[in-house]
Amino acid sequence: MPASGPVLVIGAGGHALVVIEALRASGRAIAGLLDDGPGAGGLVLGCARLGGTDLLQALRAQGLAEAAVAIGDNATRAALGARCEAAGFTLPALVHPAALVSPSATLGAGCQVMARAVLGPLARLGRLVLVNTGAIVEHECQLGEAAHLGPGAVLCGGVKLGARTLVAAGAVVRPAVTLGADVLVAPGAAVTGPVPDGARLGGVPARPMRSPAPGASDAQKCHG
Question: What positions does the domain PglD N-terminal occupy (predicted)?
């Protein structure tokens, strides 16, 4: 992310902490935070909470041009990214300086690649993809819009993730496997075959779950 003007952060929860520190590590100033939850006002890691997302257009009119959506939940991140763009903000990709990114990898608008994450050759990340701390995206993987890899998750070579799919912390997907849209892979699972849209999987090897695994709802909100 080339240095430019200050960045507006959308969200003030746990993932905002990670985004704030990644922005600072990248040499970016932070204009403040917008969050629709309770507790408007106050500071988050020294950054002011300016109010709710109803302020987007006013802040754009004041000259702010870039926003970072600091929300772990995939559908919410996608919706807020669209609202930011509709208000005239650009969504620059954010890559922590401690991440390792292949020069042949491509990142869509609003992607976030956190500390110690790895993107291999020809990896392709769609808009608003989140690759969390220490996660690995191997060669030729393709991640759809607003997909999310939790901390320490691993995609082996040639894996494809559909839009808004979550591979939670510590989970692994074997090479060349395709997962559909809106899939949830529970923490620590091992996915060995193709997965249809909307499936919920857990275990080793991963199997369908009738209800979310313990902690799965928390995983979907990972870091905010």
Answer: 7-79
Query: In residues, how long is the chain?
Result: 224
- Give the span between the Cα atoms of 97 and 117, in whole angstroms: 10
**Full DSSP string of 62-93:** TT--EEEE---SHHHHHHHHHHHHHTT-B---
* pTM for this model (two decimals): 0.90
* 216 contacts 168 by C-beta, under 8 angstroms: yes
CA dist., res. 184 & res. 42, Å (int): 34
What is the SS3 assignment for 71?
coil
What does the pLDDT look like over 56-88, one tens digit per residue? 999 999 999 999 999 999 999 999 999 999 999
Q: CA 130 to CA 36: how far, in whole Å? A: 21
Token pair of 59, please? Answer: 């802040």
